[in-house]
Design a protein that fits this description.
By secondary structure, the chain is an all-beta fold. It has strands spanning 2-5, 8-10, 17-18, 37-40, 43-46, 59-62, 72-74, 81-84. Helices cover 0% and strands 28% of the residues. The strands form three sheets. A three-stranded antiparallel beta sheet has the order 1-2-3, with no helix packed on it. A three-stranded antiparallel beta sheet has the order 4-8-7, with no helix packed on it. The chain has a two-stranded antiparallel ribbon with strand order 5-6. Strand 1 (2-5) and strand 2 form a beta hairpin.
């Protein structure tokens, strides 16, 4: 990893990013923000219920799309997966689309 100045580091093959400008919720352990990142759409981990008795503890249920908000962008080629744009606590990551 090369250092370009005291506050910016550039991992090989990436763009310069400020170090230490994220919160405890989005810090990757090296001082970088993990956002944006790819993952499962907003979801809950369900427990078996009378209406879904075959669910196992920790099974994943996607929330309805109208509850996803503007912090998640679904992958058009892979339904139920996509990119979380920014940290809900400190706002670091990609800026919201203003179009």
């Amino acid at each position: 990893m090369s250092t370009t100045n005291d506050t910016t580091t550039k991992p090989p093959g990436s763009v310069e990013r400020p170090v230490g400008q994220c919160c405890e919720h989005c810090d990757d352990g090296d001082g970088f923000c993990v956002f944006p990142y790819y993952g499962t759409a907003p979801h809950t981990h369900a427990l078996p219920t009378p209406t879904h008795p075959t669910d196992w503890i920790g099974s994943t249920r996607l929330l309805p799309r109208d509850q996803w908000g503007d912090n998640f962008r679904e992958d058009p080629e892979c339904q139920g997966l996509g990119t979380y744009l920014r940290c809900e606590h400190c706002g670091r990551g990609e800026l919201p689309n203003t179009n």
